[in-house]
Amino acid sequence: MSWIAVCDVSQVQEDFPFSAKVNDNEIGIFLVDEQYYALEDICPHAYALLSQGFVEDGKVECPLHEAIFDIKTGKCLREPGSRDLKIYPTRINENRIEISFIEE
Ligand code: FES
Fold this sequence. Notes:
By secondary structure, the protein is mostly beta strands.
């Protein structure tokens, strides 16, 4: 499995996910219960960055039409999200958050 460094751990807070473009993919890095999660950042319904949405209790609400997704699983919890989000493996390497593009 190959890993790609995305950001520093200090750049991600529970209320402020980190948005990055990695290999032409928009990725959102979220922090929930002291664990980092990497999700596709573009809402499947239309075009909005979920990392700019409202984060609460391990869920993110799309800023455009208020679909809700579970950050730990990517599961769509409220329409119009239309499908679950892709989620990518993460690891910490010397304070850098790395992701792999093999989907979980
Ligand atoms: S763009 Fe996210 S719910 Fe419509």
